[in-house]
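Consider one such protein record:
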Amino acid sequence: MKKLLLLVSLCAVMPLLAMQNGQILVILGATLIDGTGTPAVKNSAIVIENGHIRDIGPRGSIRIPGNVTTVNATGKWVIPGLIDAHVHFFQSGGLYTRPDVIDLRKQRPYQTELDWIKERLPVTFARYLACGITGVVDVGGPMANFDVRDLASRTKNAPRVAVAGPLISTYLPPALDTSDPPIVKATSPENARELVRRQLPHKPDLIKIWFINNPGDDLSQQTAIVRAAIEESHAHNIRVAVHATELDVAKAALQAGADILVHSVMDRRVDNEFIDLVTKRDVLYMTTLAVNDGYRDVLNQDVHLSDFEMRMGDPKVISTWSDLAKIAASDIPGGVRHLPARAQRPVAYDNLALLDAAGVRIVGATDAGNIGTLHGPALHREFELMAEAGLRPMEIIVSATKHAAEVMGRKDDLGTLEKGKWADLVLLDADPQADIKNTRRIFRVMKGGEFIDISADMLK
C-alpha cells in the first residue's frame, strides 16, 4: 500500500488539469514515441484542444498558440495510451473464475463469483487506467458484456471498451452454463449464422469464435460452422476473431476468413503455408503469452509477482490464489490440473519471432481475467515475454497501440499520437526503448485530453 500511495503522490506532482471545451493544453519537451513505429522525436510539442491532438511534432516546428496552458514534460517520454486487445470482464483473474478448469463451485457458487465481478467493475476499470491502459477489447462474454461497454462509456475513470458478445463455439464447457452464458455452442452452419444475428441488435465491435478441436472431432465439419459464422458476420461488416492455438485449426480458421487470430499457435512451429495465409490477408496475430503462465503458477501454487503486479493488481483477486492450499483435494471434483514447467523456449515464442520477421501485424494482448492473469498489470507482463521472444521495444509498443486500436476498430481515432486523434497518452519517467519494462514507470495518464487522477481509494 505504501508503494501505491507513492505512485499516487508522484502523479499529483503535475497539476490536475480539467480542460474545458475550447481550452488548449500544450505538453512540451517530452521525447515522443507516437506508436507508428517511426523514430522517437526528442523535445516534442503536443497541442491538445477539445480532447483531440490539434498539432504534434518537434517543438521547433509547432506553432504554439497564445494564452494556453503548458505542461513542462522535459525529461519524460510520451507514448500513446496502451490498449489491451484481449480481456474478459466476466472473469476476475481469481481462483474461482473458471469452474471448467478447476471446479470450486462448492466453495464459491459460480453466480456469486459473477455477481462479485460485476460489483467490482469500477475498481477494475480504474486499475486499467492506473496501468496506462486507456482502451481494452473484451473478446467475448455474456450478453451483459454490452452493458459493461455502456457502463465504461459513462464512467470517467474507465478505459474505452470494445466488446464481443457470447463466444460462438465448437465446444461447450458445462460448468460455464448460466442464464446468460459466456459461450454458446453452434450445432450447425445455420445455427452459427443465427447466433451471429442474435448479437446484431447490440452492435458488437467484433464476433469471437472459440474454435476448439478435441480428439475425435471432425475438423472439416467444425470448419463449415466457423465459415458460416464468419460469412454472416462479414455480411454485416463485423470483423471476426478466432481462438486457434493449434496449427491445423489456425490454418482452417484463416481459410474460413478469420480477420484476427486470437492466441499464439502453440503446438508446433508455423510453416510457410501458414505464414502465406496470414500475410496475404494481412491478418492480425494476437500473442497472449502470459495466460498459460498464470494458470501454471496459480494451480501449481508457485506464484511470483513483480513489484508492479503487487502494486497494481487487485489484492482481493490475488488473495484468492492462496485459498487453493486450504481446500482438500477430495472437495475438488476432477482434482487440480498440475501443469508441467514452462519450456525453456516455448514454441509460441519461436512462432512470434518468425511472424514478426515476416511483417505480420502483431498485437500484444493478455487474455486478462483468466486464473492468474490480472486485469491491468498483465499487459506489462506480456510485454516482458514478448521481449523474451525477441521483439524489440518499439515493435512491442506498436503492437499494443496502433495494432491494438485496429482490433478495437478504432484505428482512425486511437492508437497513435497524430493530428486529429484523441489525446490518449501516457507520460513515462524512463525510456521504454531502452527497456520495455519502463512502460511501468508511469508518471501521468491522459484520456481524451484530461489527465486522470486515480486515487488509492479507487483501487481498493
